[in-house]
């Protein structure tokens, strides 16, 4: 009887289960983030009250069989859980809202270690890949402009591949370049500049960060303060920028992405020169071909009247405003980037491989760069405790005909100062096709015809670079690990530069082989780390890291050159009349040990202390080591307040010391070099710089206080920081009297101070399922001061431009902000009136300081709007409080182009009853009173605009290959909304280090860019 009953119950259960199954259905949908509409992978989707469920894929999509009356739960960490009733629906799309109480943002910090941002005692700012990829810069560091409080980015006006100058929190160290340390996946990379222009000319050969492809970067994290960067020791005194590259995700399916970016770049004319008086001198237009050639860059002629005037070649031209100007010499530059990446996740590992090609044509004809990049990231769990990861980034870059800047020789921007009646095209092709001789267009053969240099010039640089990292991590437990990390950064450069055959200033027009050779630069880092997280008590947690690092840097270069080519256009070292050779070598090493001990009490108070011990090979044995400590604290006070609007509040404070070595090696001993033989006898040369036998590491200490606030469920947040940073014992060069036997000496007496306030306000004023607006505004105010220089606290000159050579400079001046522009004022009599000589020409007065080249107030305002599949964003940045030493201001006055020179053209300029002709007056004015070349550097710019559309997923539901597509229109450097300087872009610069910051002069014109992005996701 019992058996029959059991059988009956079993039969009933089967029927009941079948009935339930018959009442189920399959639902599908997509889970997105309500703030930006992006898909959320890994969301838990399950039927409430059961264990039946699934998770969303990489596109946020899911499919699940559910009963007709089921309630479906959508749950994901950091988001508010949602419940939705099926109620007959077959498609359910859900937009999840971030939960500020649950969401603990994780950021990458020093040594590549991820930590919860809310527990950090210092300021960290992260910039994501989407920001870096849309409106492309060939140097990815330029994309940070206006986005990070405390950070200033200044590119050089040198075309694609130019250096990006970044300063963090004011004046950098006197002895360094000012550039922060770049770290890729925990491994420091070499960011050396490969060549820079000075007042004597030269080309900007780029830096290290400019070699990287933006498509391979996941995030760039800026560590501004000394506490944030203290564990990196040497080179970290100017801050650290951590770069995390894109990787595959464990457990993910195959993913194939194709991205295409195209940008068109146009030169912008900021000049507003006079257009009334034309070519000539003394109020007279040229009357002979020789006069026309020597006055091509002088606009002191007669008023233009439409009559005929002789030209440099004997032909007649109309004496009226030209239909072209110097901008018409330039072409539309184009940047085309194509990137393909493939990634795959496995149960115990992942990989990502990308191939990227950049073809960038400069606005300068026949100039540009080509770059091919291969990036591979691999990660694998060899056992349940041992994880191994590897990265290889290979770059092959070729730069063709890199432009020369600043001075006149071989500079393609020399048409900037043409008289207003001259069309530049009359000087094409720039040379005599029969003889090859340059067509000289002015009174100075050293001011090269731009057409000549673009058609005949050779200034090429090829670079093959490999950045590799290998890491092995062994987890003894889930809280105790050991890591061994090896990084190697090797660059091999080939360089080739000539003075072309026919160049006017070369001997007998035969040209010269300036250099042909190659160099190798390498940085090797070997690092061992032991880390552990231990619960000391129920309330106190200890996070400890111990590590050691060995860094080795090498540089070696060899080249050949020669003077006067024998056969035309055969640019070989075997085709010169005199032969030369060059060789240079530099090596240095740093051995370090460090620790970090972090204590957390009940998740509201953290205290972290670090220490680093460095031993430098570049310093004497008695002074070659130093210990650098730091301590930081974070107190989350919001846990003790019952304020409904306040989600999060944190006070933070820190103190840190970082150290540094000399920028150049071999400064602590005498080193003799070989010289040319004399009468067949080998000779040597002694140094002209007096070495310092007692050099020691310089230090930078900083105190920082900060406040973090978040309101209204994360809709409004504030990040405020105050810092006070001082450098000590900075290593620098000091000038000596030549009677001492030396011209300079290495001293360690420099000191600078930076104090400032940083503010970041961000929020989401509007968030709905279909529309959102997010906005952020950052503000920085910095005051810096030079505390000491050499033993006598003399001003230390840094840079100058060719126009005011020796009469206006930038310098470190004790008691003033730096670098300070120093120039000559007017001379004044006892009544305070401007003095002139007997001819009515201005007299030179005192040498004075006119302001720092670094801004005191700067920042940016970023906005992004999303409506369904459409997104629109713009960035405005601003810069106030700095001065610019402008060569354009000098030359435009000297050559009669500036509108100021219209005053007195007919009747002369009268001062104190004495009259001088206009040409003599204005030329004497800018030569004697060089302060007239100092202009304000203030500006507000519309830096970037993007408009994009993401095609709906349903469009691709039935396509076998295409899984998604996004297209966007982009613009970069679109407009200057406010500026005080006439005739120049206040950011224009030819130099690529702190010595030439704030100095303008005959670089390439600034540009604005327009383009579009196209991104395909392939299934």
Model description:
The chain has about 1000 residues and is mostly beta strands. About 5% of the residues lie in helices and about 50% in strands. The protein is built from 7 helices and 53 strands. The strands form 11 sheets. The chain has a 22-stranded antiparallel barrel. The protein has a 5-stranded mixed β-sheet with strand order 10-15-16-13-14. Strands 3-2-5-6 form a 4-stranded antiparallel β-sheet, with no helix packed on it. Helix 6 runs antiparallel to helix 7. The radius of gyration is 33 Å and the shape is globular. It starts with a helix and ends with a strand. The N terminus is likely disordered.
Structure summarized in a few sentences:
Belongs to the TonB-dependent receptor family. With 1019 residues, the chain is mostly beta strands.
Separation of termini? 60 Å
Task: Tally the helices.
Answer: 7
Extract low-pLDDT stretches: 1-22
Shape verdict: globular
Protein name: SusC/RagA family TonB-linked outer membrane protein
Membrane topology: Multi-pass membrane protein
Family: Belongs to the TonB-dependent receptor family.
InterPro entries: Beta-barrel_TonB_sf, CarboxyPept-like_regulatory, Plug_dom, Plug_dom_sf, TonB-dep_OMP_SusC/RagA, TonB-dep_OMP_SusC/RagA_CS, TonB-dep_rcpt-like
Give the arrangement of secondary structure elements.
Blueprint: H1 2-22, E1 24-33, E2 44-47, E3 53-55, E4 61-67, E5 71-75, E6 82-85, E7 94-96, E8 106-108, E9 114-116, E10 124-128, H2 129-133, E11 151-155, E12 164-168, E13 181-184, E14 187-188, E15 217-223, H3 226-229, E16 240-245, E17 255-267, H4 289-294, E18 307-310, E19 316-319, E20 333-346, E21 349-361, E22 368-381, E23 386-400, H5 450-456, E24 458-477, E25 480-499, E26 512-535, E27 540-565, E28 576-601, E29 605-616, E30 625-636, E31 646-660, E32 673-678, E33 681-685, E34 689-690, E35 698-711, E36 716-728, E37 730-735, E38 744-767, E39 771-788, E40 796-799, E41 808-812, E42 820-826, E43 844-852, E44 857-867, E45 870-880, E46 883-886, H6 887-894, E47 909-911, E48 914-916, H7 918-928, E49 934-936, E50 939-950, E51 962-979, E52 999-1000, E53 1007-1018
Parallel strand pairs: 1-7, 13-16, 34-38, 46-52
Antiparallel strand pairs: 1-4, 2-3, 2-5, 5-6, 8-9, 10-15, 11-12, 13-14, 15-16, 17-20, 17-53, 18-19, 20-21, 21-22, 22-23, 23-24, 24-25, 25-26, 26-27, 27-28, 28-29, 29-30, 30-31, 31-35, 32-33, 35-36, 36-38, 37-38, 38-39, 39-44, 40-41, 41-42, 42-43, 44-45, 45-50, 46-49, 47-48, 50-51, 51-53
Helix pairs in contact: 6-7
Signal peptide: 1-22
Domain TonB-dependent receptor plug: 117-240
Family: Belongs to the TonB-dependent receptor family.
């Amino acid at each position: 009887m019992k058996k029959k009953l059991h059988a009956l119950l079993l039969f009933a259960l089967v029927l009941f289960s079948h009935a339930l199954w018959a009442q189920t259905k399959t639902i599908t949908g997509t889970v997105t983030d309500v703030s930006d509409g992006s898909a959320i992978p890994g969301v838990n989707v399950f039927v409430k009250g059961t264990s039946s469920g699934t998770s969303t894929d990489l596109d946020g999509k899911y499919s699940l069989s559910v009963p007709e009356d089921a309630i479906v739960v959508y749950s994901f960490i950091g988001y508010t859980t949602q419940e939705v009733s099926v109620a007959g629906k077959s498609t359910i799309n859900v937009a999840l809202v971030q939960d500020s109480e649950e969401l603990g943002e994780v950021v990458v910090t020093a040594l590549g270690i991820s930590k919860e941002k809310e527990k950090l005692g210092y300021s960290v700012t992260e910039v994501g890949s989407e920001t870096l990829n849309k409106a492309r810069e060939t140097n990815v560091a330029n994309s940070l402009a206006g986005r990070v409080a405390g950070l200033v980015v200044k590119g050089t006006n040198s075309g694609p591949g130019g250096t990006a100058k970044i300063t963090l929190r004011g004046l950098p160290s006197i002895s360094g370049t000012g550039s922060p340390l770049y770290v890729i996946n925990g491994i420091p990379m070499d960011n050396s500049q490969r060549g820079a222009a000075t007042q004597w000319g030269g080309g900007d050969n780029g830096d290290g960060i400019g070699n990287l492809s933006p498509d391979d970067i996941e995030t760039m994290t800026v560590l501004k303060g000394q506490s944030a960067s203290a564990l990196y020791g040497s080179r970290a005194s100017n801050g650290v920028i951590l770069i995390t590259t894109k990787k595959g995700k464990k457990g993910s399916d195959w993913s194939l992405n194709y991205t295409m970016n195209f940008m068109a770049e146009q030169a912008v004319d900021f000049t507003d020169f006079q257009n009334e008086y034309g070519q000539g001198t003394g109020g007279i237009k040229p009357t002979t071909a020789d006069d026309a050639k020597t006055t091509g860059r002088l606009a002191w002629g007669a008023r233009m009247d439409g009559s005929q005037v002789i030209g440099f070649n004997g032909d007649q031209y109309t004496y009226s405003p030209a239909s072209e100007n110097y901008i018409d010499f330039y072409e539309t530059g184009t940047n085309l980037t194509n990137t393909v990446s493939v990634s795959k996740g496995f149960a115990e590992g992942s990989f990502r491989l990308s191939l990227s090609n950049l073809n960038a044509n400069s606005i300068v004809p026949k100039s540009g760069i080509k770059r091919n990049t291969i990036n591979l990231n691999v990660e694998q769990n060899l056992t349940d405790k041992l994880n191994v990861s590897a990265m290889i980034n290979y770059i092959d870059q070729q730069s063709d005909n890199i432009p020369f800047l600043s001075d006149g020789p071989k500079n393609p921007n020399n048409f900037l100062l043409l008289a207003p009646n001259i069309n530049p095209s009359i000087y094409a092709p720039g040379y005599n096709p029969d003889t090859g001789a340059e067509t000289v267009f002015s009174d100075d053969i050293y001011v090269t015809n731009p057409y000549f240099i673009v058609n005949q010039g050779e200034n090429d640089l090829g670079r093959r670079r490999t950045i590799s990292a290998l890491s092995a991590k062994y987890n003894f437990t889930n809280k105790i690990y050991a890591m061994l990390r090896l990084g190697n950064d090797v660059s091999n450069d080939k360089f080739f530069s000539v003075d072309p055959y026919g160049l006017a200033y070369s001997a007998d027009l035969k040209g010269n082989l300036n250099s042909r050779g190659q160099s190798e630069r390498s940085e090797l880092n070997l690092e061992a780390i032991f880390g552990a997280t231990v619960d000391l008590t129920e309330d106190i947690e200890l996070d400890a890291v111990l590590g050691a690092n060995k860094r080795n840097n090498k540089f070696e270069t060899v080249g050949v050159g020669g003077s006067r080519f024998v056969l035309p256009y055969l640019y070989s070292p075997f085709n010169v009349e005199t032969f030369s050779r060059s060789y240079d070598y530099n090596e240095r090493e740093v051995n370090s040990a460090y620790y970090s001990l972090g204590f957390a009490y009940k998740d509201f108070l953290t205290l972290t202390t670090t220490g680093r011990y460095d031993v430098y090979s570049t310093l004497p044995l008695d002074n070659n080591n130093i210990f650098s400590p730091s301590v930081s604290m974070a107190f989350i006070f919001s846990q003790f307040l019952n304020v409904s609007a306040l989600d999060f509040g944190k006070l933070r404070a820190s103190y840190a010391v970082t150290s540094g070595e000399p920028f150049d090696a071999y400064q602590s001993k005498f080193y003799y070099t070989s010289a040319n033989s004399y009468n067949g006898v080998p000779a040597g040369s002694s140094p002209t710089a007096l070495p310092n036998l007692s050099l020691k590491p310089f230090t930078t200490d900083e105190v920082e206080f900060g406040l973090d606030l978040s309101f209204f469920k994360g809709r409004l947040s504030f990040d405020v920081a105050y810092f006070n940073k001082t450098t000590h014992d900075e290593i620098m060069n000091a000038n000596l009297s030549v009677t001492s036997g030396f011209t300079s000496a290495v001293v360690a007496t420099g000191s600078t101070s930076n104090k400032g306030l940083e503010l970041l306000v961000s929020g989401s004023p509007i968030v709905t399922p279909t529309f959102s607006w997010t906005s952020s505004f950052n503000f920085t105010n910095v005051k810096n001061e030079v505390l000491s220089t050499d033993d006598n606290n003399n001003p230390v000159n840094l840079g100058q431009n060719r126009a005011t050579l020796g009469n206006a400079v930038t310098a470190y001046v004790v008691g003033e902000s730096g670098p300070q522009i120093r120039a000559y004022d007017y001379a004044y009599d006892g009544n305070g009136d401007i003095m002139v000589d007997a001819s009515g020409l201005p007299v030179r007065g005192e040498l004075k300081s006119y302001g720092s080249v670094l801004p005191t107030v700067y920042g940016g305002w970023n906005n992004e709007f999303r409506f369904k599949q459409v997104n629109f964003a713009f960035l405005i940045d601003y810069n106030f409080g700095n001065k610019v030493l402008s060569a354009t201001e000098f030359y435009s006055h000297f050559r009669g182009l500036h509108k100021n020179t219209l005053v007195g053209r007919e009747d002369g300029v009268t001062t104190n009853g004495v009259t001088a002709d206009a040409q003599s007056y204005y030329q004497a004015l800018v030569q004697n009173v060089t302060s007239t070349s100092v202009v304000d550097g203030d500006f507000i710019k519309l830096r970037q605009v993007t408009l994009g559309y993401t095609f709906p997923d349903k469009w691709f539901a039935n396509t076998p290959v295409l899984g998604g597509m996004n297209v966007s229109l982009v613009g970069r450097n679109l407009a200057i909304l406010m500026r005080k300087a006439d005739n120049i872009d206040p950011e224009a610069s030819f130099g690529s280090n702190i010595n030439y910051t704030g100095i303008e002069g005959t670089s390439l014109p600034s540009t604005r860019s327009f383009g579009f992005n196209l991104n395909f996701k392939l299934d």
